[in-house]
Amino acid sequence: MPRAGLTPHRIVAVAADLADEVGFEKVTLSGVARRVGVKDASLYAHVRSLQDLRTRMALLAGGEMIDRIAAAVAGRAGKDALVAFAGAYREFALRRPGRYAATQIRIDQALVVDSPVMRRTAEITYGMLRAYGLEEPDLTDAVRLLRSTFHGYCALEAAGGFGAPRDVQRSWDKAVDALHITLMHWPREETDHDD
Amino acid sequence: MPRAGLTPHRIVAVAADLADEVGFEKVTLSGVARRVGVKDASLYAHVRSLQDLRTRMALLAGGEMIDRIAAAVAGRAGKDALVAFAGAYREFALRRPGRYAATQIRIDQALVVDSPVMRRTAEITYGMLRAYGLEEPDLTDAVRLLRSTFHGYCALEAAGGFGAPRDVQRSWDKAVDALHITLMHWPREETDHDD
DNA sequence: GGCGAAAACCTAGGAGATCTAGGTTTATGC
DNA sequence: GCATAAACCTAGATCTCCTAGGTTTTCGCC
Containing domain of residue B29, as a range? Predict the structure, then answer.
């Protein structure tokens, strides 16, 4: 019988595709093994556990996602950059739902802090906000608000949470508009006293 | 051996408590059975399946959550109401993480549409926005933005997604402030032409 | 109080999942 | 050409969901 030529990388790629089809949490080692034509026990030579596989999927998906966002934002600034960022974010979340779900799992902080993906993400996000002239701690607050809104919207939309007949793309455009306005009118921190 | 006195209600309550402790997705029928001192097969007399149990947990949690929010919002209007709503929302999400996760699962729409929980939620949410004088479709867009931000923030916070040393409560207050400002400056729809 | 029936709970077991231990086959470097 | 490491397998323990069918408790009713 010919060898399947497995590597950790190949297994994670197959798992990510499977996740986009059946959902991140429904990805099973047995399922991945079936898809690559191998017994489930064979995967353990390349991947420590299901937990380990999920962590690797998260890192892969995070990298892919920030790459697309970076490409969309490149060369833009201000509202243009915000709209491009938001559009790329939502498109990835909706077109690669399994990968997107992977990016949201809790990961050992030691693996993430100072990883290239994290650094790149912070770089692009804070760069996008430069045009609005915010300073710390307002910058961090603004980033948290953006992330929350983007993630919340995509999560609710993907879960079928928006039942009203109102067009979802239009609501999204409005939300991004609203965020832009918020960033323009940001309620800045009083730095003099610390209550 | 004495009977445990099971009812669907009791099982769902135990499952919800268990979810708050170990996480919604880690709730298992075997685990619930162990906790009430019964064999797992016995649960099937009261609950059709794990799926069924999860749906019931979602309905229970949704009712509990909207009750707390309603109590917080009662008698308030405008920004006051928004701050109270947001505070009650986040407190529930953080203190009852399993229940909160249950409210986010996808449910058969037939079970939800026109359910008391849904009606009540819509009533309170739209009532809270009355002070801002928005009309459809802006109203729906605003509700979607609020839900997205609240959910996204709580989901990221619960998942440990906010690593920066900046105080999370303060960022939240700022986010709610920002939402208030957004609602005041809402970019209203042009109803004359449909591009 | 006794009895019939429904409800509550049990045992037994299949199917599929994760993961370990240890064996066999294939590829590779010298 | 052969030793060895890597790739893959079988077997099996344990956990999960769920079904089928049996036993025991409870309760209304005569």
Answer: 8-184
